[in-house]
Amino acid sequence: MRYAMAIDTKRCVGCSDCVVACQTENNVPTGYCRDWIVEDMAGQYPELHLEIRSERCNHCEDAPCVRCCPTSASHVVEGGVVLVDHDDCIGCKACIASCPYDARFVHPKGYVDKCTFCIHRVREGKKPACVSVCPTHAMIFGDLDDKNSDISKALRTRQHKTLIPEAGTRPHVYYLL
Amino acid sequence: MTKSLNRREFIKIAGIGAGGFAAGASALHAWNPFQIDPTQIASSGIPGVTPTYCEICFWKCAGWVHKKDNEPWKIVGNPDDPHSNGRFCPRGTGGLGAYTDPDRLKTPLIRVEERGKQVFREATWDEAFDYITDKMNLIKEKWGPECVALFTHGSGGDYFKNLIKAYGSNNIAAPSYAQCRGPREEAYVLTFGEAVGSPERTDMQNSKCIVLIGSHIGENMHNGQVQEFTEAVAAGATVITVDPRFSTAASKSKYWLPIKPSTDLALLLAWINVIIEEELYDKDYVEKYTYGFQQLKESVKNNTPEWAYPITTIKPHIIRETAREMAKNAPATIVHPGRHVTWYGDDTQRVRAGAILNALLGSWGRRGGFYSQVKAKVKSPALPPYPKPKKDWKDAFPGKYPLANLAISQGICDATIPSVERDCSFKGWFVYGTNLLMTLPQPKKTLEAIQNLELLVVVDILPAEITGYADVILPECTYLERYDDLRVSAGRVANVALRAPAFEPKYDTKPAYWMARELALRLNLGEYFPYEKIEDYLEYRLKSIGSSLDEMKKLGVKQLPSDQNSLYFLEGEDFEFYTPTGKIELYSTQLANAGFDPIPQYTAHEEPGEGYYRLLYGRAPMHTFGRTANNPNLADLMDENEVWINPKVAKEWGIRHRDYIILENQDGIKSAKIRAKVTERIRHDCVYMVHGFGHSQKQMRRSFNKGANDSDLISKINVDPIMGGTGMRVNFVTFRREVA
Q1: Cβ of B558: how many Cβ atoms within 10 Å?
Q2: Chain B environment of A139 (Cβ under 8 Å)
Q3: Max Cα–Cα distance, chain A, nearest Å
Q4: From the CA of B249, how many Å to the nearest CA of chain A?
Q5: B493: which DSSP letter?
């Protein structure tokens, strides 16, 4: 089982619903977020191209944050989901420095926090909060090892990319182009 | 086609949910296939889950409010709700912030110093009501009840409408008419005999070609509509976006036409010209359903793409190519009617040009164009007849705005300022849920009008700017803390939704229903509010559709059976439109009779002078007007607006990206400081900002002094002579450096 997410940049309008849904679902304090919107503009007027992405922890297959964590607070659970054990985290920020995606932050309570792929929901058979709320159905979550999952189908049929592939971390968040 | 499409759709604006339909309950003969077994609802039966419909914007999506450990947790969409399809937008998802906001109004307040000085004393509800009713009695006696007006936006406004009508006035204005979609509704009524309505009857999910005229779907987060738009985009629909700005929608479009602002009507006429000259129109449809084709053909014969090019800056071959693209996909092509369309003062005519284009393409009443909404029929209890007012706002403007169907907000403002030319001056205002100082253009005029009032009552949740000028402030509890009238929706499926309180009202706040009824009792108008508890009123209405409060608490949304056999015209169906000719009026007999152009004609608008740029404004997906800027969840997503400036312009002025600057308009009015967003995404002759920021009210701590308020800069308006809409994109700004 390998959990992954795909964001359809053709559908995403950058409304930030994923951001606020994550904040309320996971009680993320005001001023912090586990996911965020990036608007990537290219070209010159009037030949323009805009790519809108919802970004978050990439739950990398070769996760530098897990490798560098001195207390093993950063760890991998089922489906390759990368989590932080809040009790074991000493807030040293080594993981923050190692993450190519700037996906982690220090929670006001002192531990490092980030996207969990809403594993608490996934374990109940639900989709992550961001995926379930997205009004434009721009997000797909599922198991890459299941050939019939929506995400496997989307990656088979659609052009896609990952972010900063040169970092070599083998991210599990894909962007459909 | 069903008969219901033939029924005159009166223009309904803002919060008309009460009233319902007195007749027609007999249509509910059979249970519908959509009826949901309450035991199948996942959310029902879970403790701590309450049904609501959202009040953060007018789309009113239905959902469930969840608690965890008895604390507010989250709000999620109801999958049975056609407005949201179970998916809330960021504002609805962040709706809890309206409840948790520590800056909320907490108790009734009575002003003790002059208006605007913001010196109030805390009052009891009794004191507040006594103050108001004393003044209302005085006004009634001295000037007549017609001298009280209501401005309203939102669900609770309906109870105040009932109160004001019972008191003897029909001066009820919604800024959503003359400052927003009024011209659209009038244009469609003039052309097709029916309004577009809200949620719009646009069948975008089935469209193969979507034409957006300045409509920035995706940035305006009208939920169901955004969902349909993205479904169409994903299915490969051709999108043609006409906008001086590379909007989110433009970025999803096959064609982006960066038109010179204020020239849209020229482009529309050129499209009509191409469609007619190249015989691309739906000949059978035009023959069968429309009136005035020959006059139209004659009228637009000179409006060629070559004529439009120097006006619009859109190249002739692009105009032809896009016109052919529309025709190729017709009738599943929709020229979207837009929503906020009060731009230049000839807005009814511009929107009508789009309506005419839709008629030529045969998209009205066709799949992928406009569908016929199934209406919900829910009974309301009978009330005694309202007293007949002796005069209304129109009397203050003899002969003006002949085709306005609703009171116009700025008209009431004007008629509050005493003038030798008129004897009708308003003496009392109720303002429900609308921050007039940011909603209306020309805020100076609004303030002048306010200083002439005997009574200004403001009902709000937040200490919005308008509250600073009130005589009495009545603090309403949020939508999460109250029942309201049912949301009765027309659509592909008629449905009703319930709003029940998830939490007890915080502070000393109360629901609008209770306030309006208490005032009615004190004015001896209690017979207009026969139910002490709103729950009993809701039970009465729900009984008429075979439901109950108990059932609705489990369902949240109930879909109703339909007696309409199709959402579209049937092949070759005869149909009588509710227009004087019974046809779709390409040539408007009503406009001709009233002395206006029966077919839209392009007239050039004033252009910005040297060093000035046209001020455009719009929406951000996570905010609704100015009412969410202080919401902790939503301010977290966007806490200030920016002014979009083309890089070439920015270079000329030495403005760098993210610099704070000040805008100054043609009348020398300066904005608050605002960040520059230097971007290729906008033309060189205009600037753009999101509306709803730049709050000047200190009590709203999160939004105070964040960004700039476009309304301050809208000191000039072009009024639509047909229906009184206020064209607001006629102001020009230049740049000033921030003074430290």
Answers
A1: 25
A2: none
A3: 52
A4: 8
A5: S
What letter would DSSP give residue B220?
A: B
Between A and B, how many residue pairs show a Cβ–Cβ distance under 8 A? Answer: 114
Considering the segment(s) B613-737 as one domain, its CATH architecture is Beta Barrel (2.40)
pLDDT for res B676:
97
Residues 6+ apart with CB under 8 A from A153: none
What token pair was written down for B440?
Answer: 């209306």
Q: Do A132 and B636 touch (CB under 8 A)?
A: no
Predicted pLDDT at B563: 82
Q: How far apart are CA A57 and CA A4, in angstroms?
A: 11
Chain B residues near residue A31 by CB distance under 8 angstroms: 636
Chain B residues touching A23 at Cβ < 8 A: 633, 636
pLDDT at B1 exceeding the cut of 70: no
ipTM of predicted assembly, 2 dp: 0.96
Query: Ramachandran region of residue B701, left (φ > 0), alpha (ψ -120 to 50) or beta?
Result: alpha
Given this chain, do its domains B187-373+575-593 and B613-737 carry the same CATH topology?
A: no
Backbone φ, ψ for residue B68 (5° rounding): -130, 130
Which of B230, B657, B690 is best to mutate for the A interface (most A CBs within 10 A)? Answer: B230
- The domain locations on chain B are 187-373+575-593, 613-737
**Closest CA relative to residue B214, chosen from B54, B340, B306:** B340
Q: How far apart are CA B116 and CA B92, in angstroms?
A: 32
Output the six-digit token pair for B22. Answer: 């007195």
User: For B229-236, what is the mean pLDDT?
Assistant: 97
HSE, CB side, 13 Å, CA atoms: give it for residue B333: 28
* Closest by Cα among B190, B169, B626, B637 to B412: B169
Asked if B221's CB is within 8 angstroms of A135's CB, the reply is: yes
Residues of B in contact with A22 (CB under 8 A): none
> Closest residue of A to B258, CA-based?
A46
Write down all domains in chain A, each with its CATH number in brackets.
3-176 (3.30.70.20)
**Cβ neighbours of B119 (radius 10 Å):** 11
DSSP code of residue B563: -
Share above pLDDT 70 across residues of chain B, in percent, rounded to a whole number: 93
Q: Report the chain B residue with the minimal C-alpha distance to residue A40.
A: B251
d(CA B553, CA B531): 20
Q: Which of A11, A44, A45 lies at the smallest CB-CB distance from B233?
A: A11
pLDDT band with cut points at 50, 70 and 90 for residue B102? very high
From chain B, the residues in CB contact with A137 under 8 A are: 87, 227, 230-231
Give the pLDDT of residue B47: 64
Element (H, E) at A112: strand A112-113
Whole-number Å distance between alpha carbons of B690 and B677: 12
Cα dihedral B14/B18/B23/B25 (nearest 10) = 110
Q: Does A10 touch chain B (CB under 8 A)?
A: yes
- B598 contacts: CB under 8 Å, gap ≥ 6: B292, B295, B587, B588, B589, B591, B592
- B277-295 confidence digits (pLDDT tens): 999 999 999 999 999 999 9
Amino acid letter, B121: R
CATH code given to domain B187-373+575-593? 3.40.228.10
CA distance A128 to chain B (A): 13
Contact between A171 and A59 (Cβ < 8 Å): yes
- What residues in A contact B622, CB-CB < 8 Å? 15-16, 20
Question: Is the separation of the CB atoms in B702 and B687 below 8 Å?
Answer: no
Instruction: Tally helices (H) and strands (E) across chain A.
Output: 6, 10
pLDDT single digits (tens) B473-516: 999 999 999 999 999 999 999 999 999 999 999 999 999 999 99
Q: What does the alpha-carbon distance between residue A24 and residue B77 come to, in Å, rounded to a whole number?
A: 14
List, in sequence order, every residue forming a beta bridge with B662; answer none if it has no partner: B736
Q: How many residues does chain B have?
A: 740
